[in-house]
Amino acid sequence: MTTAILPRGFSSxxxxxxxxSRVNQQYFAHTAAFSKQPAIDELAATWxxxxxxxxxxxxxxxxxxxxxxxxxxxxxALPLGFPLPSVGAEPxxxxxxxxxRDSHWTxxxxxxxxxxxxxxxxxxxxxxxxxxxxxxxxxxxxxxxxQEVALAKN
Amino acid sequence: MLDPENIPPVEKTELLARYVMxxxxxxxxxxxxxxxxxxxxxxxxxxxxHRGATEAEIWQAGVNVATQQQRTLxxxxxxxxxxxxxxxxxxxxxxFPDSPNHxxxxxxxxxxxDQKAIALKLAASATKLIPPPSTPx
Lengths: 154, 137
Prior knowledge:
- Chain A has helices at 12-29, 37-50, 65-77, 140-151, and strands spanning 86-89, 95-102, 105-111, 116-123, 129-133.
- Chain A has 154 residues and is of the alpha+beta class.
- Chain A has one domain (36-151).
- In chain B, strand 4 (90-93) and strand 5 form a beta hairpin.
- In chain B, strands 3-1-2-5-4 form a five-stranded antiparallel sheet.
């Protein structure tokens, strides 16, 4: 599985920052508290189950490898210490990353084969939704919504 | 089951069953995920009306679908018709010869994010996964 995280720039400084970030990320990724492995494992299991057409018995589209790579990159792009999503698939061939606190505090992000992120959330009485391109980093709007769900009081 | 010769329209107070045939459609606490309610590739979402059916008949309808689709029936999630009338959605009776209680949730928006927003609301209103009677809890 390859990562699709994009570099931050082309100058020598940008390259240095990018390299240091990756080294730090690899270090923390191996610690239990910051490991993203549970989500990666769930992603792999979902891919294995949904990579062929009609995986749901209702003519679902297969999950393409490009979608898998984008979803992997989104998980890897989550800031260290962020809550991990639950991974799933939708019949249109999108992979989903869900954060769930309870039925009225939840957000679902669909990752499309072309790297677009479609999202919808329930935050109590509000239901924000929209779409954002994934360009190597998770849009701030989505990080903010995920945090709202994760930090919501029961 | 409903009389195939006399299928009444779906009323707001009716319970509907959505059969669960993907283990990724429910969480470890048995709450159902919104993915269960995404209608793609069709324009409607299949459900089974409780009306006039015994518990055994409701389950048999699910078993029939799972057998036909060669899937595992993990259970069902029930939802009130009134809870399905979100935004542009409506519920209409769509009986089949072998499934008179079949109905469709129709009127889905075309925008992906709008479908997801509705699916979240349906999942929030639906019951937890109800396992088939033979499944140990």
